[in-house]
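Please, structure for the following, as C-alpha cells.
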Amino acid sequence: MTDLAGDDLLLTLAALANPHRLRVIAALSGRRSYVSELARELRISRPLLQMHLRKLEAVGLVTATSEISEDGKAMKFYDIGTFELRLTPETLTAAAATITADTPGGPS
C-alpha cells in the first residue's frame, strides 16, 4: 500500500488515529498472534480488540488467517499486512486531489 488515493488515505489515517490500534500494530511487529493472546498482552477486552482489528484489517494494515488447533478449536491469527506510508507535501497534494465528498471521515 503506497501512494493511496485520497479516500483510502483518509480511511487509513483514521484507522491509525487511535492509541489501541497503534499498540496493536506495535504488538504484531515481527510476529503473528491470536485475539486472546493479544488482548491479554494489551490489557483490553477481546470484543474491543476485535473491533480494532477489523478496522485495521479493512484498510489492509493487518491480515487474518484462520487455522484449526490440534484440539480442533478454530483460531484466527493476525499479522501485519504489507504496507508503507510516506507522507510528504507532494503525496498529500496528490491524495487531496482525489478525495470524494462521500468519503467517511472526508470533507463535508
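The chain has a mean pLDDT of 89. Helices lie at 6-16, 19-28, 35-42, 46-58, 89-96.
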